[in-house]
Every structure is written in C-alpha cells, then in structure tokens.
Write a structure and sequence with these properties.
The chain is mostly helical. It is 52% helix and 0% strand. It folds into two domains: 1-42, no CATH class; 49-117, no CATH class. The protein contains four helices and no strands. 4% of the residues are buried.
Length: 141
C-alpha cells in the first residue's frame, strides 16, 4: 500500500495511505465519495448518541477500552477523526496523570517508611555521592 498521489492547488502531496487497488486515499478517491457524503451527513448525529456519555478513567485499562471504542468508531465511520484526535489527546494526558499519581503514592509510602525509621535510617552524605563504589573484577559478579 503506497501513499496517496493527490496534490492540492499548492502542489503539496497528500500524506495519506492509498486504498487497496487504488492510487488515492479514502478522502481523495472517487470510489469512496458516496460513502464519505453519507458519513459526513451522519457526522455529529452519531457522536451525540452513545459517545457523549461521561466516562470514568481510573486506570490504564479504562483508557485501553476507551481507545478501542474510539478506534472502532472511526473505522466504522461513527466517529469523526477530529473528535477521535481530541479524545486520544485527552487519553494521553489521563494516562500520564495516572502514572504520576502512582509515582506520588509510592513516594509517599517511602517517605512514611523513612519517618518510621527515625535516626536509625542511613542518610546519604555528600561524601557518599562523590566517592565511587568499588568495582569488582569483570566476571566476579
């Protein structure tokens, strides 16, 4: 499957993938014009249905399910690609927030552990950081 050969008025080439047995992509091929018109007419009507429900994202698995739904909706023409792009962006931010939340929770656990240890816990000094650890001979691990 090659790249679409369509060029706009400014001579810029389309970067979409050509359809199977066609030299043009879905958006430029005359073979898909009727399908595109129908999809455009459905456009917002379908997105106002099931896809407008609020969702709860609490884990990476929730994001995976959301992305699967959106990808399938785009493939079937039920979800506009621009809407999907916005959802993907939001999902990426949510995933990063989940990761940061987990890291913060782990840091809080470590901090509590250190506080419980009191003065018995080993503290790192500048000297510890400047002196390299002794390295063993290769093969003596």
């Amino acid at each position: 499957m090659g790249t679409c050969v369509y060029e706009n008025k400014n001579g810029e080439k389309c970067r979409g993938y050509a359809l199977k047995n066609d030299s043009l992509c879905y958006f430029h091929s005359p073979q898909t014009k009727k399908e595109r018109v129908i999809a455009a007419q459905k456009g917002g009507k379908v997105c106002q249905g099931d896809f407008r429900k609020d969702i709860q994202i609490e884990s990476a698995n929730d994001i995976i399910r959301l992305l699967e739904t959106i990808i399938n909706g785009v493939k079937s023409g039920k979800i506009d690609a621009k809407v999907a792009n916005a959802v993907f962006y939001g999902a990426n931010i949510s995933l990063k927030a989940i990761e940061l939340f987990k890291i913060q929770a782990r840091l809080d656990e470590i901090s509590k552990y250190i506080e419980r240890q009191g003065n018995d816990f080993y503290t790192v000094t500048d000297e510890d950081c400047l002196d390299p650890l002794p390295l063993g001979e290769p093969g003596n691990e």
